[in-house]
Specification:
49% helix; alpha+beta; Jelly Rolls; 5-stranded antiparallel sheet; single chain
């Protein structure tokens, strides 16, 4: 038995879970935590359509089975693995009822309000650096540490203690610091070089500004360097020039809208900053290899289009 996750339509649950109308409004949209076993057993997520995320999502599957669809790609969920999705991603999750672990959702503003935010900058940097999904295997040692923190976070979230939000911010930052260590270990590096740091700054800016900043010179000006220098560094670190990353980010969002919305090509083009529909149509075909209409038709026929 599977259940689809829709974290915007939560019902009143049994046990020590607090209902939506009982929670402080300051908490509702910026932070949530649930256990996966309770999610699977209650079957209260009714909307099975993919959802475009407005916040970070962390799904820690300790054990169980399931499928995560992120921006049109299916990922078989594995035990002892943390999956992190960034705002703007389009995701759908199906979990079996016996799955164990945690689901955490938080807006970046929630941890930015914390004094320890700088300690977690690598986390948000890594997530934005990856286009769709960040995954990390959690070994036995890290499992015990993260489990203790997650339990404390959930206990704090489910109750009404004095200065609750401050405690939640601190505990979340601790959880993300441990997750950051795991990411660094799997990445095999401890400190990013100056060039790698520039690439990450470029990717983070690109994800925020791709609809209005489409030229390499736009980003170069932001970093007070020349376009040629930025292109050279981006290509040396990633294997592709900055212009390639700009095109791919625009194309990713165009595909998201083509698949997960009923917007027309004209509407999609306008939302992505194209004043000329014909220009967008040419761009889409050159980068994707097929025109916008054919892309939507293939998706409706169930063919993989990402």
């Amino acid at each position: 038995m599977h259940t689809a996750l829709d974290y915007n339509r939560r019902k009143v649950l049994q046990g020590n879970i607090v209902s939506d109308h009982q929670r402080p409004s300051d908490n509702d949209n910026r932070f949530q935590i649930q256990s996966l076993d309770l999610i699977g057993s209650q079957r209260f997520f009714r909307n099975e359509s993919p959802e475009k995320l407005k916040a970070f999502e962390v799904i820690w599957l300790k054990s169980g089975r399931g499928v995560l669809q992120a921006d049109g790609e299916n990922h078989i969920l594995s035990d002892n693995t943390i999956y992190c999705l960034t705002p703007g991603s389009v995701r759908k999750v199906n979990l079996e009822t016996e799955s164990e672990g945690y689901y955490i959702s938080f807006a970046i503003e929630f941890i930015r309000l914390s004094d320890t935010y700088d300690n977690c900058f690598f986390f948000s940097e890594q997530c934005y650096f990856n286009s769709r999904l960040v995954t990390a295997f959690v070994d036995k040692h890290n499992t015990s540490e993260l489990e203790a923190i997650a339990k404390q976070i959930k206990w704090e979230f489910d109750n009404f203690f004095n200065r609750k939000l401050e405690v939640l911010k601190g505990l979340l930052n601790i959880f993300l610091i441990y997750f950051t260590r795991i990411l660094k270990q799997s990445d095999g590096s401890t400190n990013a070089s100056g060039e790698e740091a520039l690439v990450r700054r470029f990717i983070m800016s690109l994800k925020k500004n791709f609809a209005t900043m489409k030229m390499v010179s736009d980003y170069a000006s932001q970093f007070c360097i020349s376009a040629n220098y930025l292109n050279r560094i981006i290509k040396r670190v990633t294997g592709f020039p900055a212009s390639h990353h700009i095109q791919q980010q625009i194309m990713l969002e165009a595909k998201r809208q083509a698949i997960y919305s009923s917007a027309s090509m004209k509407e999609v083009a306008y939302s992505l900053g194209f004043d000329n529909t014909a220009h967008f149509s040419k761009f889409f075909k050159n980068v994707c290899g097929m025109n916008f209409t054919d892309f939507k038709i293939r998706d409706k026929q169930g063919q993989r289009v990402f």
